[in-house]
Amino acid sequence: MLLWIIQRDLLLAMRRQSDVLTTLFFFIIVVSLFPLSVGPEMNMLRTMAPGIVWVAALLASMLSLGRMFSSDYLDGTLEQMLLSPHSLFLLVLGKALAHWLVTGVPLVLMAPILGIQYDLPADALFVLTASLLLGTPILSLIGAIGAALTLGLRGGGVLVSLLVLPLYIPVLIFGSGAVEASSAGLGYGAHFSLLGAFLLVAVAFSPWATASSLRISME
Amino acid sequence: MLLWIIQRDLLLAMRRQSDVLTTLFFFIIVVSLFPLSVGPEMNMLRTMAPGIVWVAALLASMLSLGRMFSSDYLDGTLEQMLLSPHSLFLLVLGKALAHWLVTGVPLVLMAPILGIQYDLPADALFVLTASLLLGTPILSLIGAIGAALTLGLRGGGVLVSLLVLPLYIPVLIFGSGAVEASSAGLGYGAHFSLLGAFLLVAVAFSPWATASSLRISME
Amino acid sequence: MNWENWSEFFAMGGYGFYVWGSYVVSFVCIVGEVMLVSKRRRTLQKQRGLIHEPTTKEIENETTP
Amino acid sequence: MAINWFKYSSPATYYSLAGKLIPIFTVAAVLLAIAGLYIGFFVAPTDFQQGEAYRIIFIHVPAAWMSMFLYLVMAFWAAIGLAFNTRLSSMIATAIAPTGAMFTFLALWTGSLWGKPMWGTWWVWDARLTSELILLFLYIGFMSLQAAIDDPRRADKAGAVIALVGVVNIPIIYFSVNWWNTLHQGASVSLTQSPKMASTMLLGMIIMSLACWMYAIAMTLIRSRVIILERERHTAWVAELHEKEAA
Amino acid sequence: MLRGNDLVCVRGDRRLFEDVNFFLDAGGIMRVSGPNGSGKTSLLRMLCGLSLPAHGEISWRGTAIRSLGGEYYNEVTYLGHLAGVKDELTAIENLRISSALAGAEIGEDKAREVLQYVGLGGRELLPVKVLSQGQKKRVALARLLVSSTALWILDEPLVALDTSAIKMIKDLLEQHLAQGGMVVMTTHQEIDIAAATIQQLQLA
Amino acid sequence: MLRGNDLVCVRGDRRLFEDVNFFLDAGGIMRVSGPNGSGKTSLLRMLCGLSLPAHGEISWRGTAIRSLGGEYYNEVTYLGHLAGVKDELTAIENLRISSALAGAEIGEDKAREVLQYVGLGGRELLPVKVLSQGQKKRVALARLLVSSTALWILDEPLVALDTSAIKMIKDLLEQHLAQGGMVVMTTHQEIDIAAATIQQLQLA
Ligand code: HEM
Ligand SMILES: Nc1ncnc2c1ncn2[C@@H]1O[C@H](COP(=O)(O)OP(=O)(O)OP(=O)(O)O)[C@@H](O)[C@H]1O
Ligand SMILES: Nc1ncnc2c1ncn2[C@@H]1O[C@H](COP(=O)(O)OP(=O)(O)OP(=O)(O)O)[C@@H](O)[C@H]1O
Ligand SMILES: [Mg+2]
Ligand SMILES: [Mg+2]
């Protein structure tokens, strides 16, 4: 069931062609806007780089949250999912994973290239990528809760950011903190273990919260 | 007619209560995210501030573009607008202005307070606010074209950013450039006259381009 | 008593703007909150004649949890 | 004790009980505030380090405390409402949120007004300040979510979910922000706390905190009564109530 | 007045219909019928100029509608599958906005009266999203009552309506026709409408 | 099997219906009728557990549906106003996905065959968004052909369908009933269905 729902969502993402690409381009554009607006000094850009990449990743992942449930909601598929004999927990977990595969993974793959634009050294690049790899699934999982709660509310797109961004903050801090720690020559192990712990907690609880939110929203 | 459509859109915005507020809070949150991911050193934050505020304003304005036409499109109102005997140019201009009133103006009003968080001096705050006042209507007008072109495409939300961001870049550069110039003690008059010129061009041409895009999207 | 006279009290040792800025805004917020709630209540009372339909049968079991 | 608690969880009973309690809490809040302000401004001595500016403390600290407590209280009632489907507790949660947000705002406002003379800047990205700011966002998120939903039952439940998720996150946010802040060489300025506070200062602060508590309770009662009236305006007992009031 | 000449509709690889010819005069009704997917909606959208025929021409009072623009839209009202009704607004606001958009502003009292007539009395102030399917459709149809255009193009106006509402629409159409109006409509349901000239256009 | 006891539905300030009681046994059909906005859709959503009645209880084989959960959903198929059909996917993909979701996976050949039967032969590979209203509805209804559930809850299944499709649905329902299935449906159109027991539930 889990695999099956992931497969379906990936199929839909492929069918809508531009979905994967556009999130990715959004990420790239936001990261590239900063040198334009902040100015071209390399030293400063280098210090800012992990922060900017992380904020951009967070925004990109957040902006695509809207699509996680809303199209299923509008055309009645979600109603059918609630009426399905399958476990809603798994269904929701599947959807969050599919979201991550479609939005998170491309970001992770793209990050090193963007890091090079900001002249990051190789090990910082590695830490940046690894932190994104650990962090982006958390974003998808937490985001699912917000997306489920704001279902069908017309102002939804922006409301979801309001709900979800404060919850993203720890991920952001530890994600970008890891890179900065490694640049400063400090260990980043602690950051990574914390991110890992967040991930475990999120996998265990967020589908459950999301499932109840969905039931609430559909009532 | 112009007034009338503005009034209608404002009514809709009020009805959806949270619309105005959520764009604003999005702006605030994005601006407040950066220190979290870049780190709390005030000196660095002060140099980044104009760039960050401008990028955040641009994102906030862009994200609310989706709502400019899409709900009218989904429920068939847009079809009715195309079939209306009124001038489509004015209709579109009205919608863009309403969008600016709902999203741009609150940002302009909020910017000084956020600038204070970044410890900007008083005159930089003034230039920042003035540049936003000149710049945000351009964002709404240009954005309208993108919103019209991506109407009804499911990946729309992100596709519109892709189309519109490149066009926003000059506004971003001159807007944040003005603040930096004033901080550096240089004149910012040239930046402002350029922004003003952009604004005039946008008012003259963008409604026209938007109107034709709408016709194309609806065919 | 800390203060020789009122003007000293208002000056707050040069920090008047900050101290009074805090207290005045706090006071305004509290008054504002009270006013918002009472306005909400008044709108409700204004509406009640319009909205209440004595014809619909009342819902007794709605009042208990 | 044979109190029937469920009796008080019926909106009708609560409504009249709250009506009786409101004056008590209001009077208590006013009296305590007068006493607290008197102590704060006329009894407490000038601080040798900060001069008179420290007098902001009598509003700043109570506001900061309230902002945090109220979030917990709100989440508690919301959780009860979600778990036992008691609408009254959800309404109380809804009624608390604006007051909590107001105190959060006041803590930020008075804090930055304090920061300017003490640190020379309105704002620093200090751990405590930052988490207070995030708390404001959590409140606003809760309120806008509820405002965006028309159906009150759904609004209650959705609000409860976000309040609970937020409550789990508050410690995480607090510690992460704290850690984030101290990993770097730290903010160039830190809270200049005098280790031994004059006992009158402490007294003034505590009395002002109590005043804020009373105010928050009174406000919650008042607002929850309005919410009850809004939601139950079509029930028999509200109609009776109106008739009684009209007579 | 409204004439279609050798109209051809192509969708994807399919030629939905070809050689469709008709002429509709004042007081006449044309009912377009055909099984699902035969191109009824596509034809109606062509008639309002929302899409172009692959071949052939549509003319109004002798002029091709393509060259008429706004003038034509002063005389046409189109109600498609989508009602053009805003979920967040109340029925009154919806009606006032949609008729103002169509160039015929109406006051609040008039709107209230019209909504009363279509059976939404007492529900004028609810946001439309809480209304039932049929009630939403009624809000959309209420526009016809305040429209002063000559040509009505209606795509399945009877969907989701109950019998009393169908009767109301029937009366409304008959009155419009009697005053010299014109109607082009599709429907899968049976409905008898008295008119000066009744045409049936069978697709596929 | 399906029993409703003293059901009350409250929407906003309105009490839509009260004291609704019914009992539906194997082979029986219940047609819920009433004017627009009388609460038919609301009742049907209650019957599937999508919303809760303000008062009263719905039970299936003697157990309240609230306490049944997934077990109940193994035996119910609900088709609402919204078809649950994805615009971007083809008819085949839609059918396979929706039946897998309902717990009955089918292969590609089977799906093709079913779509052929509902009259979409040759259009199985088009994205659903280009299909006509009626064809979309057929894609949604195709699910009934592969469903093995006992209780079908259908909200206006006939909307937008042409006469041949209505005939098909009629046959399908009769066959389902003959095999001991149950149907609860609403429709504003006339349709005669032969069944062991036929009930009419009139709202408002
Ligand atoms: C926007 C700025 C500020 C914010 C958001 C803020 C927030 C807070 C919070 C949340 C508390 C309660 C902490 C706790 O009980 O653990 C607090 C307490 C306190 N704050 Fe602030 N504060 C700000 C600025 C300042 C400034 C500028 C000063 C002094 C120079 C200051 C001095 C204090 C003191 C003395 C306490 C009491 C500490 C205690 O009792 O443990 N704050 N503030
Ligand atoms: N890209 C395409 N490729 C093939 N066929 C297409 C394409 N786009 C549309 N069609 C076909 O065009 C037709 C559209 O028909 P239309 O919506 O006009 O039908 P209709 O007569 O209104 O039907 P209904 O009674 O169901 O509303 C459908 O048969 C559809 O399959
Ligand atoms: N918040 C609300 N306040 C008042 N009335 C409401 C509210 N929400 C829904 N309603 C009413 O509830 C009813 C919903 O009816 P429902 O959708 O069940 O009707 P239906 O019988 O399916 O009608 P149709 O035949 O048009 O599909 C409508 O009459 C609507 O006006
Ligand atoms: Mg059609
Ligand atoms: Mg219905």
Mind explaining what this structure looks like?
The complex is a heterohexamer, with 2 copies of chain A (219 residues), 1 copy of chain C (65 residues), 1 copy of chain D (247 residues) and 2 copies of chain E (204 residues). Chain A is mainly α and 219 residues long. Chain A has helices spanning 2-15, 18-38, 42-63, 66-74, 77-82, 88-117, 122-149, 156-183, 189-218. Chain D has one domain (21-239). Chain D has helices spanning 5-8, 11-43, 57-84, 87-119, 127-148, 152-183, 199-231, 236-246. In chain D, α4 (87-119) packs antiparallel against α5 (127-148) and α4 runs parallel beside α6. The model of chain D is unreliable at 185-190 (pLDDT under 50). With 204 residues, chain E is α/β, with parallel strands linked by helices. Chains in contact: A-B, A-D, A-F, B-D, B-E, C-D, C-F, E-F. The complex binds protoporphyrin IX containing FE, adenosine-5'-triphosphate (2 copies) and magnesium ion (MG) (2 copies). The site of one magnesium ion has 3 residues of chain F, from α1.
| Largest sheet features of chain E | 5 strands, parallel
Helix content class of chain A: over 70%
Output the radius of gyration of chain A. Answer: 18 Å
The domain tally of chain E reads 2
Tell me, briefly, the overall form of chain E.
globular
Order of helices and strands of chain A: HHHHHHHHH
Helical content band of chain E: 25-40%
User: How would you describe the shape of chain A?
Assistant: globular
Q: Could you outline the blueprint of secondary structure elements for this entry?
A:
The complex is a heterohexamer, with 2 copies of chain A (219 residues), 1 copy of chain C (65 residues), 1 copy of chain D (247 residues) and 2 copies of chain E (204 residues).
Chain A: H1 2-15, H2 18-38, H3 42-63, H4 66-74, H5 77-82, H6 88-117, H7 122-149, H8 156-183, H9 189-218
Chain D: H1 5-8, H2 11-43, H3 57-84, H4 87-119, H5 127-148, H6 152-183, H7 199-231, H8 236-246
Helix pairs in contact in D: 2-7, 3-4, 3-6, 3-7, 4-5, 4-6, 4-7, 5-6
Chain E: E1 2-11, E2 14-24, E3 28-33, H1 40-47, E4 55-60, E5 63-64, H2 70-73, E6 76-79, H3 91-101, H4 108-117, H5 133-146, E7 151-155, H6 163-178, E8 182-186, E9 197-202
Parallel strand pairs in E: 3-8, 3-9, 6-7, 7-8
Antiparallel strand pairs in E: 1-2, 1-4, 4-5
The structure holds protoporphyrin IX containing FE (HEM), adenosine-5'-triphosphate (2 copies) and magnesium ion (2 copies).
